[in-house]
Amino acid sequence: MPTTRVFAERRCQQDLGEIRHNNENSSIIFVEPIGDDYLNLEAAITGPISTPYENEIFCINIKLSEEYP
Fold this sequence. Notes:
Blueprint: H1 4-21, E1 28-34, E2 37-46, E3 57-63
Antiparallel strand pairs: 1-2, 2-3
Protein name: UBC core domain-containing protein
Pfam family, one: UQ_con
Domain UBC core: 7-69
């Protein structure tokens, strides 16, 4: 029987696929797992338009728990 981690990683893979598919008008530049660990992600986003952060790029690390989502 798959572990809770396996279920969380599968769900994250599914969610990342949706993000990639629906990313045309998004502020997300990319979001990818670090290595093969789908519970440890890195991402880059752009600052919101009409704010002091417009045209800036922010790199972030995202750690998901084994209870994700």
